[in-house]
């Protein structure tokens, strides 16, 4: 039973109550929260106008009856719609940074974000360097890159104008319009020709890579996202083939391209047995994200 308005709950009690509701509903996670408890924290922190991390410092505080009821209503919507929580709240967090979120683009998430924040990509990002975020979606990776390396220039592109509108809002939200330039178009078609000076020291890309069999088996939460941002063809490599084929034209001599492939390690190895990829360690393991140096593509 939901907490009555006159009943005094602490933040911690409210989080636990919401978590129990979510856990009983057989939901699927992975859109900014890993389980019912972390998603409940996110729901309650939103009602407190705090980040999830900040809310952890207020667990023993009292939460108002109105905030309790609003948090419970959000949980009910999450359960009844099976939509990712980020769409319901209109906001997502990635590496502690908030992003506006809507169903026009995929929910911000990528193992590449870890590598940006921990400094693993700095060897390919000289001062005043140029970086490109292919398939930028909501713009979250481009923004994290710009925030982490304020001296570089970041280009970001996507085929979806609705997604780019979300990216533009996020770029503006973080005051990065002078550092991030957005382009509309299909992969390399969006970027001016290399002979016009568009050579990049680092290209990052979290492309659509889910293979056809896996797409059909995805839970409802993932089907709420644009299929354009997920589906990678029969083996998940359709866009990645196009990306790798033309990447050398846009990379500097000592540049590199970083690509997230999720659970498609075996399909990547079959598709590109000749490429000496460097597999980057992230919290999900060593087969999710790869880096290819320009010299190994030419």
UniProtKB/TrEMBL annotation:
<keyword id="KW-0489">Methyltransferase</keyword>
<dbReference type="InterPro" id="IPR007848">
    <property type="entry name" value="Small_mtfrase_dom"/>
</dbReference>
<dbReference type="InterPro" id="IPR017127">
    <property type="entry name" value="Ribosome_uL3_MTase"/>
</dbReference>
<feature type="domain" description="Release factor glutamine methyltransferase N-terminal">
    <location>
        <begin position="33"/>
        <end position="90"/>
    </location>
</feature>
<keyword id="KW-0687">Ribonucleoprotein</keyword>
<keyword id="KW-0689">Ribosomal protein</keyword>
<dbReference type="GO" id="GO:0005840">
    <property type="term" value="C:ribosome"/>
</dbReference>
<dbReference type="GO" id="GO:0005829">
    <property type="term" value="C:cytosol"/>
</dbReference>
<dbReference type="InterPro" id="IPR002052">
    <property type="entry name" value="DNA_methylase_N6_adenine_CS"/>
</dbReference>
<dbReference type="GO" id="GO:0036009">
    <property type="term" value="F:protein-glutamine N-methyltransferase activity"/>
</dbReference>
<feature type="domain" description="Methyltransferase small">
    <location>
        <begin position="127"/>
        <end position="214"/>
    </location>
</feature>
<keyword id="KW-0808">Transferase</keyword>
<dbReference type="InterPro" id="IPR004556">
    <property type="entry name" value="HemK-like"/>
</dbReference>
<dbReference type="Pfam" id="PF05175">
    <property type="entry name" value="MTS"/>
</dbReference>
<dbReference type="InterPro" id="IPR029063">
    <property type="entry name" value="SAM-dependent_MTases_sf"/>
</dbReference>
<dbReference type="GO" id="GO:0003676">
    <property type="term" value="F:nucleic acid binding"/>
</dbReference>
<dbReference type="Pfam" id="PF17827">
    <property type="entry name" value="PrmC_N"/>
</dbReference>
<dbReference type="GO" id="GO:0032259">
    <property type="term" value="P:methylation"/>
</dbReference>
<protein>
    <submittedName>
        <fullName>Ribosomal protein L3 N(5)-glutamine methyltransferase</fullName>
    </submittedName>
</protein>
<dbReference type="InterPro" id="IPR040758">
    <property type="entry name" value="PrmC_N"/>
</dbReference>
<keyword id="KW-0949">S-adenosyl-L-methionine</keyword>
């Amino acid at each position: 039973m939901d907490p009555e308005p006159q009943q005094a709950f602490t933040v911690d009690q409210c989080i636990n109550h919401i978590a129990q509701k979510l856990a009983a509903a057989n939901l699927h996670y992975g859109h900014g929260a890993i389980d019912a408890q972390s998603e409940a924290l996110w729901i309650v922190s939103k009602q407190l106008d705090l980040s999830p991390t900040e809310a952890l410092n207020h667990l023993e505080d009292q939460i108002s009856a109105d905030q309790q009821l609003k948090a419970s209503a959000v949980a009910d919507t999450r359960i009844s719609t099976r939509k990712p929580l980020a769409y319901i709240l209109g906001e997502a967090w990635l590496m502690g940074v908030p992003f506006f979120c809507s169903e026009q683009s995929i929910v911000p998430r990528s193992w590449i974000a870890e590598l940006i924040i921990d400094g693993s990509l700095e060897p390919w990002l000289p001062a005043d360097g140029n970086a490109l975020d292919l398939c930028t979606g909501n713009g979250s990776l481009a923004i994290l890159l710009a925030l982490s390396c304020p001296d570089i220039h970041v280009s970001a592109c996507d085929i979806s104008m609705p997604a780019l509108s979300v990216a533009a809002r996020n770029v503006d939200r973080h005051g990065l319009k002078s550092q991030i330039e957005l382009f509309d178009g299909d992969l390399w078609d969006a970027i001016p020709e290399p002979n016009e000076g568009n050579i990049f020291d680092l290209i990052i890309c979290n492309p659509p890579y889910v293979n056809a069999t896996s797409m059909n088996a995805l839970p409802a939460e993932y089907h709420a996202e644009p299929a354009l941002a997920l589906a990678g063809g029969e083996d998940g490599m359709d866009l990645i083939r196009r990306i790798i084929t033309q990447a050398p034209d846009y990379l500097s001599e000592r540049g590199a391209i970083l690509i997230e492939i999720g659970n498609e390690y075996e399909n990547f190895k079959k598709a590109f047995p000749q490429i000496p990829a460097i597999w980057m360690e992230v919290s999900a393991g060593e087969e999710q994200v790869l880096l290819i140096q320009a010299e190994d593509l030419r």
